[in-house]
Design a protein that fits this description.
Order of helices and strands: EHHHHHEHEHEHEE
Number of domains: 2
Strand order of the largest sheet: 3-2-1-4-5-6
Bound molecules: 6-O-phosphono-beta-D-glucopyranose, magnesium ion
Shape: globular
Largest sheet: 6 strands, parallel
CATH topology of the largest domain: Rossmann fold
CATH architecture of the largest domain: 3-Layer(aba) Sandwich
CATH class of the largest domain: Alpha Beta
Helix content: 40-55%
Distance between the termini: 8 Å
Number of helices: 8
């Protein structure tokens, strides 16, 4: 492995639960049921695409302007939850793993769908560890499209075969595999059957 590309939410930091809570609050405000299972399918998916899937589930149509307002509302609720977050909410072993990659001369990139990625990296104090940051502000195409990871590999000057992608989302694992990457799923084999291997956390994975 010459390069490591990390998803953010659910791989480096425990923010997936806040996305879930905020989406559930929004769905309920529209009278739409939204379970953990519904959420599983939305992990890694961009803000707009997530909203559109929730509206589709509730059979509700909204104009572009209304969707914009709903996304702002969800994001505000999400930010209200993450504002209190400290570096302690980095996931088990994540920061040590990044530092270990750095020591071993492995290039590090972020490959996230989130537009809030710069804020979260700041909160965790880990922005300086990354050679490249590719997030929802850079790439519009939502995972499972592989563009976010392909752009990340390009930015660290490596081809997909030389990089490992670390992902907790079904859509993210699909994106990595479509892009030709080896993919370590952060979760279980049951949740992420397409991953090349799985680990419960980065703390459990050793670089070979
Ligand atoms: C992904 C999360 O990392 O980013 C999704 O897994 C989220 O749950 C997506 O919807 C977009 O995030 P944001 O912060 O731009 O709303
Ligand atoms: Mg994720």
């Amino acid at each position: 492995m010459k390069g490591a590309i990390f998803d953010l939410d659910g791989v480096l930091v425990d923010t997936a639960k806040y996305h879930f809570q905020a989406w559930q609050r929004l769905a309920h405000s529209l009278g739409i049921e939204f379970t953990e299972d519904d959420n599983e399918a939305l992990k890694g998916v961009s803000r707009l695409e997530s909203l559109e899937r929730i509206l589709e589930k509730g059979n509700i149509e909204k104009s572009v302007e209304e969707k914009e307002e709903l996304m702002q509302l969800k994001n505000q609720w999400y930010l209200d939850l993450v504002v209190e977050m400290t570096a302690g909410e980095a996931l088990t072993g994540a920061i040590a793993f990044l530092e270990d990659c750095k020591l071993k001369g492995i290039k590090i990139a972020l490959g996230s769908s989130s537009k809030n990625a710069p804020l979260i990296l700041n909160k965790l104090n880990i922005g300086h560890l990354f050679d490249a940051v590719v997030d929802g502000n850079v790439v519009n195409l939502s995972k499972p499209d592989p563009t976010v990871f392909l752009t990340a590999a390009q930015k660290i000057g490596l081809s997909p075969e030389d990089c490992i992608v670390f992902e907790d989302a079904i859509a993210g694992v699909q994106a990595a595999k479509k892009g030709g990457f080896y993919c370590v799923g952060i979760g279980t084999k049951e949740n992420l059957p397409l991953a090349d291997e799985v680990a419960h956390s980065l703390g459990e994975y050793s670089i070979r």
